[in-house]
Amino acid sequence: MAKAVFIDRDGTLIKLVHHLTRPEEVALLPMAAEALKLLHGAGYLCVLITNQSVIGRGKLTEAGLERVHAELYRQLTNANATLDGVYYCPVAPTVQDPSVIEHPDRKPGPGMLLRAAEDLGLDLPASWMVGDSLSDLYAGRNAGCHASILVRTGYGDRVDKEQAPADFIVDDILAAARLIVGAAEAL
Questions:
Q1: CA-wise closest residue to 15 among 159, 128, 173
Q2: Active site (annotated) includes residue 8
Q3: In this structure, are residues 50 and 94 in contact, taking their beta carbons and an 8 Å threshold?
Q4: What is the residue-level pLDDT of the chain in tens, covering all 187 positions?
Q5: Treating both helix axes as pointing N-terminal to C-terminal, what angle do 111-120 and 134-143 enclose, rounded to 10 degrees?
Q6: Catalytic member of 8, 105, 136, 172
Q7: Rounded to two decimals, what is the model's pTM?
Q8: Active-site residue, 10 included
Q9: Which end of the chain, N or C, is surrounded by fewer C-beta atoms within 10 Å?
């Protein structure tokens, strides 16, 4: 079974844009491509896990999301980086508590991670979750990942660090990648 790093999209891999709907709004965060390359080099699959309530809210169609992700892939390809999978949940939230599972696929629910694990043959206890919000961290925990890492990009600076279910808190996705690779090398 393969090990993976599950990565949130908005605020973790790309610049945070509230309710992103247009491909021209996609901008990789600095060092995001380098982080993916480092993780791949260490034998991890990199899987994007993203709540896309813009679909459930009627602000974007699935075809529109495909165009957004095509731009993301274009930017990654230009930087010689890639993702091994993309999973999204179109359901809009009805409660504000980031620990409440409203739908099995919507983070903090583990559904997208569990589906990716089945599709890609992933070892969840050897895998990591990286994100900028509490719901990302809870999704990793709820899926049985080895650890969850909070990045301080995106919404990460607004998260109460004392209450965050984070195993680690780092500045950005590259710092997360370095921590993961360092932990693997220490075993």
A1: 173
A2: yes
A3: no
A4: 999 999 999 999 999 999 999 999 999 999 999 999 999 999 999 999 999 999 999 999 999 999 999 999 999 999 999 999 999 999 999 998 999 999 999 999 999 999 999 999 999 999 999 999 999 999 999 999 999 999 999 999 888 878 788 999 999 999 999 999 998 776 5
A5: 50
A6: 8
A7: 0.96
A8: yes
A9: C
Burial of 147-180, coded b for 16+ CB within 10 Å and e otherwise, reads: bbbbbbbbbbeebeeeebbbbbbbebbbbbbbbb
Domains observed in the chain: 3-186 (3.40.50.1000)
Q: Give 98's Cβ-side CA count (13 Å radius).
A: 18
Phi, psi at 90, each rounded to 5°: -85, 0
